[in-house]
Amino acid sequence: MTSTSSGLVMTVRGPIRPEELGFTLAHEHVFIALWDLAARFDYPVLLDDEDVLAGELSRARDAGVRSLVELTVPDMGRAPARLRAMSERTGLNIVMGCGWYRAPYYRTEDLIDRRSVGELAEQLLREIADGADGTGVRPGVIGEIGVHRSWVTSIEERVHRAAGRAQVASGLPLITHSPLSPVGLDQLTILEAEGVDPARVAIGHSDSYPHLRYHLDILARGAWVLFDNIGTAYPNLEERRLGLVRELVDRGYAHRLLLSQDVCTDSQLEFGGGPGYAGVPTRFLPALRAAGVPQEAIIAMTVENPRRFLAIA
Ligand SMILES: [Zn+2]
Question: Residue 34 in contact with residue 45, Cβ under 8 Å?
Fold first, then answer.
């Protein structure tokens, strides 16, 4: 259905050639409202100040970042027109997500528990073809498609099946939210049952479950290992993150790894004392180089892999 876009990458400003992506962060957020959850008042929020965010994004651009995947889906507060304006303002390519996040965030009005999986998939495919919310801004990736705990609930399974069907029909890549457990393998099993090629799936937050065995299992299944909490979440794991990337590169998997920071709260921004969107190029990559990871592997993880993964099949 997206034959006109096949081989291209869909950004919020329209399709581009994969070579135009350059250095790409594979999992970030610009506009997000995770606090908007019934009975929850303590969730940190990413500030909604476009001038501050544009400054933060510009510093990432100055550090070499050219593109980012923005995985905010509607139940996390996705803002297609604002993303397009931010892309125009900063010059960064932004690839927007679509789908549903995880069960506690599903909105009642989305009727996920009473519409068929096929209907849910159709909704995603309409948006992928025509754009979101009447803006004409088209998603370039499906996700983040998540689980709330270390298992896939029945309603989350419906979302995974719908996302999988939309992936097969559209050729878009798919990124999961798979925190703190090996649940990414179970999500992959559901997606595969819907006909999804694992090579089109990146397992998000793989580094929040920092076990070599898990990462090798994902790779053996043919999916991508996404290290997307770099410098921003579970800081006690930063050394293990570094060691795991080096180990996986040593084992020949540089072509199957993606790096990012998943900025989604104020404290992760430079504004809040965190590394901001530039943490991967300014902090993590120098540490990788110091640990002996060769430059060609770094180019693979930050430039060549996103180019291959994000190109519409
Ligand atoms: Zn995220």
Answer: yes
Instruction: Dump pLDDT digits (tens) for 228-281.
Output: 999 877 778 889 999 999 999 999 999 999 999 999 988 899 998 999 999 999
Q: What is the pLDDT of residues 97-144, one digit of tens each?
A: 999 999 999 999 999 999 999 999 999 999 999 999 999 999 999 999
Ligand 1 centroid distance, CA of 177 (Å): 7
pLDDT, one tens digit per residue, over 28-82 is 999 998 766 665 555 556 778 999 999 999 999 999 999 999 999 999 999 999 9
Q: State in Å: Cα 77 to ligand 1 middle.
A: 12
Q: 228 CA distance to ligand 1 centroid (A)? A: 8
CA 183 to centroid of ligand 1, rounded, Å = 16
175 Cα to the center of ligand 1, angstroms: 10
* Cα–Cα separations (whole angstroms), residue 182 to 68, 128, 149, 163, 229: 26, 29, 11, 20, 16
Q: How far is the CA of 2 from the centre of ligand 1 (A)?
A: 25
Pick the CATH number of 23-310 from 3.40.1790.10, 1.20.1260.10, 2.60.40.2100, 3.20.20.140: 3.20.20.140
Contact between 230 and 241 under an 8 Å Cβ cutoff? The reply is: yes
Q: How far is the CA of 71 from the centre of ligand 1 (A)?
A: 6
Residue type, 246: R
